[in-house]
Amino acid sequence: MKAIVYEETGASSVLQLQDRATRDPGPGEVRVRLAVSGVNPTDWKSRAGSGQGSTKLKTPKVPNQDGAGIVDAVGPGVTGFSAGDRVWLWDVAWGSDEGTAQEYAVVPSVKVVALPDDESFDTGASLGIPALTAHRALTSSEHGPDRLSPGSLTGQTVLVTGGAGAVSHAAIQLARWAGATVITTVSDDRKDGLARLAGAHRVLNYRTEDVVAAVNAAVPEGVDTIVDVNAPANLESDVEILKPGGTIAIYAANPGESVTVPVRESMGKNIRYQFILTYTVTDGQKQHAVESVSEALAAGALRVGEEHGLPLTRFPLAETASAHDAVEQGTIGKVLIDVAPLT
Ligand SMILES: NC(=O)c1ccc[n+]([C@@H]2O[C@H](COP(=O)([O-])OP(=O)(O)OC[C@H]3O[C@@H](n4cnc5c(N)ncnc54)[C@H](OP(=O)(O)O)[C@@H]3O)[C@@H](O)[C@H]2O)c1
Q: How many angstroms is it from 251 CA to the middle of ligand 1?
């Protein structure tokens, strides 16, 4: 089979197309034939390493956490899946040398989720990192819910920063599905249009508008939860527009960045700061996220493509290095790799 492999960290040129043997799934494992691999910032960051030059890996790795395809074989003890099932995958390369930039991946069955017949592999390959992170962010308030469902956020207002990003796009769609009023911020007109297509009720251009004044006017009592892609820049204004007892969910920062917390103002509002790394949430939080995302998917609430606010940019498997570069360079929307033409 064809696989993209890297044996040392570094620039995208470390990614090499190789022919490799497939292996049989062991106990509790599923072998999946990949149709589409989804690329996230975490994939190029892992491949690039710490930035201190190249580091030789102990064992070769296949990149990319997210993907979708068809079950090819199931290992001993696996129930609920059989060959031919359409599935999406999450966190494949976390703690493993397997990734989704290859024709077949052997994955623990817990990371394999049914993909409805009427949902595309493109959608399936866009869920893992973005939607599971977004679910955790939207359920990090102490007032609950700990699992999203229709109506679970009714009456709540959520602010999602950077509304045209992949995680933000998922957060807007999940929050809408759960019944929240959704406000989002973006940096330009193109992203404004995309955030509206994703379903945001109100979109603010943070470069040209006074976000604090606009949100305070629209929601005088304050927003319940802020899903923040850039807390180091936004924290001060977040505190001003958050409701007492509200939550700021922080899931991104550039290397070495810190946030400065206005302590007295945060105390005064009893603000909760929730830091999130999707790989290390609890098993229960991950399970809730997978269940809710599956439910939202089945309800048609999670959509990808330009018309739904998440343009798709595609690369063939052999050009995985270019796909990584495209994500690193900030391509708007979702970058996907066509691994094999499955139906
Ligand atoms: N902690 C976790 O578990 C977790 C999970 C997923 C992603 N992440 C991280 O979250 C970030 C966003 O991921 P994504 O997949 O949503 O990326 P994306 O699709 O490239 O979206 C990033 C969006 O964030 C906004 N942004 C704000 N500050 C930024 C900055 N300093 N650099 C780049 N974009 C910035 C941009 O919107 P505007 O131009 O409108 O500001 C951009 O549209 C990445 O850093 C990623 O590594 C973390």
A: 9
C-alpha pair distances (Å), 35 with each of 59, 170, 237, 317: 25, 21, 42, 10
Listed in sequence order, the DSSP H helices in the chain are 41-48, 121-124, 128-138, 166-177, 189-198, 211-218, 231-241, 263-268, 283-298, 320-328
pLDDT at position 59: 96
End-to-end CA distance of the chain: give it in Å, rounded. 19
297: tokens are 């998917």
Strand partners, 157: 181
**Fold for the domain defined by 130-279:** Quinone Oxidoreductase; Chain A, domain 1 (3.90.180)
Regarding the beta carbon of 322 and ligand 1, being less than 6 Å apart is answered no
Query: pTM, whole model, 2 decimals?
Result: 0.98
Q: Which one of 44, 138, 167, 254 would you pick to mutate in the ligand 1 pocket, going by the greatest count of ligand atoms within 8 A of its CB?
A: 167
| CATH 3.90.180.10 is right for the domain spanning 2-126+311-338 | yes
Tell me the pLDDT tens digit for each residue of 4-25: 999 999 999 999 999 999 999 9
Q: Do domains 2-126+311-338 and 130-279 have the same CATH topology?
A: yes
Distances from the Cα of 196 to the Cαs of 103, 114, 314, in angstroms?
A: 36, 29, 23
Mean pLDDT of the chain: 97
Domain ranges of the chain: 2-126+311-338, 130-279
Is the pLDDT confidence value at 116 over 80?
yes
